[in-house]
Design a protein that fits this description.
This protein is of the alpha/beta class. The protein has a domain of 129 residues: Aspartate Aminotransferase, domain 2, CATH 3.40.640.10. It is built from 9 helices and 5 strands; from the N terminus they run αααααβαβαβαβαβ. A 5-stranded parallel sheet has the order 2-1-3-4-5, sandwiched between helices. β4, α9 and β5 form a beta-alpha-beta unit. α3 runs antiparallel to α4 and α5 packs parallel to α6. The chain is globular, with a radius of gyration of 20 Å. The two termini are 18 Å apart.
Length: 221
């Protein structure tokens, strides 16, 4: 959207971006504007690639990616060798959903606060496998962690095989209690898949302590 420039208290944040001064930008989730320091860094890497493509891609790429994973390891609390780069969280959920050994009669449990693309992914995969996709209601307003845990866990049945949740929900901006739910799911022998698209940089992450089976996230929000 467009509008008048923001006041002086927030101009220092605007200076970190290349946005036009008459644009007030909200949609960092879908098409986030790149901060100026990040933009300059990736342009520098792009220039280095173009100066010697064979050396960069053929000889240096693997080591550079390992170095990048090591930096990400400290940020998200996961071993570098357990981290895999993907285009975005939607791609990651698709990879996981299509790879799980789901069978007719199995159930995938989620909430009614999930991102539309993820709902469509699971519906498609479950339709192909004869698996039931269960969207458990989580009523608003939320007053306690226990309320959310109990509401979601009420959807677990003997046929539940997968618990799929957003860490921070896209349509309602709710931070779900994934620690409590993942712990309970692991005790019940369920596979846990967390869509963390909006979490890095907004909430502290320690994926090793969380004990999740698959955590998919973006680092561009």
């Amino acid at each position: 959207m467009t509008g008048a420039p923001l006041d002086g208290k927030t101009n220092h944040l605007r200076d970190l971006f290349l946005l036009r001064p008459d644009v007030i930008f909200f949609n960092h989730g879908s098409f986030g504007a790149c901060p100026r320091p990040v933009f300059e860094a990736y342009q520098a890497w792009q220039l280095e690639l173009e100066r010697q493509p064979v050396e960069f891609l053929g000889r240096r790429h693997a080591a550079l990616m390992h170095e990048a994973r090591a930096a990400l390891e400290a940020f998200v609390g996961a071993a570098a060798d357990d981290l895999v780069y993907i285009p975005n969280a939607t791609t990651g959920v698709n990879i996981v959903a299509r790879s799980l050994p789901l069978a007719p009669g199995d159930e995938v449990l989620t909430t009614d606060h999930e991102y539309g693309a993820m709902d469509r992914t699971w519906r498609f995969v479950c339709g192909q496998r004869g698996t039931r996709y269960v969207r458990q209601p989580v009523p608003l307003p939320i007053t306690s962690v226990e309320q959310v845990v109990d509401a979601i866990w009420a959807g677990v049945t003997p046929h539940t095989r997968v618990l799929f949740l957003s860490h921070i929900t896209s349509p309602t901006a709710v931070t779900l209690p994934v620690t409590e739910l993942v712990h309970r799911a692991r005790e019940a022998g369920l596979i846990t898949v967390i869509d963390g698209a909006h979490a890095p940089g907004q909430v502290p992450l320690d994926l090793t302590a969380l004990g999740v089976d698959f955590y998919l996230a973006n680092c561009h929000n």
